[in-house]
Amino acid sequence: MTYLTPSQSNQFSVLGLPVHLLNDYPSWLADRIEQGLGCHVVTLNAEMTMQAEHSPALAHIIQNAELVIPDGAGIVLYLKLHGRHVNRCPGIELSATLLARSPQFNPPWSIFFFGGAPGVAAKAAEVWQQNAPGIAIVGTQNGYLTPDEEPAFLHRLKTLQPQIIYVGLGVPRQELWIAQHRHYCPNSIWIGVGGSFDIWAGTKTRAPKWFCDNHLEWVYRLYQEPWRWKRMSALPKFAWRSLIYRLTKRNPVIVSKF
């Protein structure tokens, strides 16, 4: 296993929530996968941070996740304000990196896609299988399960024991669902991937590179989905709370458990 020094692996507080600062998230996760060590990966952004302020259950899940990455531009800017110059690590890119790497291992990592509208996860899996020969996507399931269907699905997951499980149910539902059900596959890497299946399946498009590089991906998402404006109101709230937090509290760097 790659043992990271404290200088390479720190836990930093963002409005009371942890963010783990690693030089190489995919390699750290690859070590976990190869050793059969389970992990919940949370892709933290400003919207989720604001939701956690009003949801003790979500805050508890984030605080106890084995890996919390700086997904959103707001998180990266917050860290920079406090002297931590880090690159944004979008969850969709981290997930894609693991998918692309999986055929390099013998045997390839087994992967499951759960979430999205009917047919979307299956289409996303088909695209990946075409583009990455040897990839082992062992199953898919849309996110529109009825209460009567869920037990059979959970039994299927328990039987398959995939090494990586991507859950695309949206925030915070996917984080709550993972925390409630990860004991079915305790040695798996669980990642909430939001709308990644739609991007991979081609039913939606991701923001052009210029928007991503300039921390404006949220603008493009709002253009695509105007109904998001209420959710986007979390961004100015996050900025205001960040300012207040900085003035009233210290932000210690805590050596993490890695």
Word description of this protein:
By secondary structure, the protein is α/β, with parallel strands linked by helices. It has one domain. 46% of the residues lie in helices and 17% in strands. It contains 13 helices and 9 strands. The protein has helices spanning 25-35, 46-54, 56-64, 73-81, 91-101, 120-131, 150-160, 173-181, 196-201, 209-213, 217-224, 229-232, 234-248; strands spanning 10-14, 17-21, 39-44, 67-70, 110-115, 136-141, 164-168, 189-192, 253-255. A 6-stranded parallel β-sheet has the order 4-3-8-7-5-6, with helices on both faces. It has a 3-stranded antiparallel β-sheet with strand order 2-1-9. Helix 2 (46-54) crosses helix 3 and helix 2 crosses helix 13 (234-248). The radius of gyration is 18 Å and the shape is globular. Residues 1-9 and 251-257 have low confidence and may be disordered.
